[in-house]
Amino acid sequence: MSEFERRNFLIWAAGSAFAFLTVGSSPARAALGALAEQDKGKKPGDPKDPKKGTESKPASKPADNSKSKDKEIAPGDQTDGSYVLDPDNPPKVDIKTKGTPGGNYVKLGNDTVFVAQSTDKKHWYAVSAICSHKACAVSFKNDEIVCPCHGSKFSTTGKVTKGPAKDDLAEFKTEEVKGKAGKKFVKISKK
Predict the structure, then answer these.
(1) CATH code where residue 176 lies
(2) Is the peptide bond before 164 cis (omega within 30 degrees of 0)?
């Protein structure tokens, strides 16, 4: 027997042994036989169950109560990508500020957002926390977003009202929501 014939024989023997061990063994054969028997007479895409002869129905989904108005909301990151702020217990965000911010900083994904409440306590505002001029952290004074570093001013929607900044701040959506025992939180999300 030549070296070539010997190698071919060994490859054939190894393949046969593998096939016997995986498909030819009695437990595997029994399982394959049961599957083949179950699918007998069933065409691809045919929804009928051959055992019952009736239409099979998909399992129904459990009721989704996640949108319930009565669900208690906890502060922090939410599954929908938003952030819920507890104004009485704001998160610690690593940002350097100059002076008193007059609001809170939160992380919304990769964005650092500045959240402030109007002086009449009727509205919440959320804009990018970083000034578009020289990247200083903004603050809130007299219902206006201000940059304490160089004096830029922005409306509560992030529009530049006074330079040197030329670019507006990104605005975020705010919504007052209720948490435990009716406590008021602020939900911040992208517009």
Answers:
(1) 2.102.10.10
(2) yes
pLDDT digits (tens, 9 = 90+) for 114-125: 999 988 888 999
Of 189, 191, 177, residue with least CA distance to 75: 177
Q: Does residue 69 belong to any structural domain of this protein?
A: no
- Count structural domains, the chain: 2
Are 92 and 23 contained in the same domain?
Answer: no
Q: Which residues of 113-145 are buried (b: 16+ CB within 10 A; e: fewer)?
A: bbbbbeeeeeebbbbbbbbbbeebbbbbbeebb
> Which domain does 148 fall in, by range?
76-190
Query: Do 26 and 83 share a structural domain?
Result: no
pLDDT at position 15: 73
User: Quick one: tokens of 181?
Assistant: 């025992």
Phi, psi of 15 (to 5 degrees): -65, -40
- pTM (2 d.p.): 0.60
**Does residue 141 share a domain with residue 49?**
no
HSE (side-chain half, CA atoms, 13 Å) at 134: 9
Give per-residue pLDDT as tens, 139-182: 998 889 999 899 999 999 999 999 999 999 999 999 999 888 88
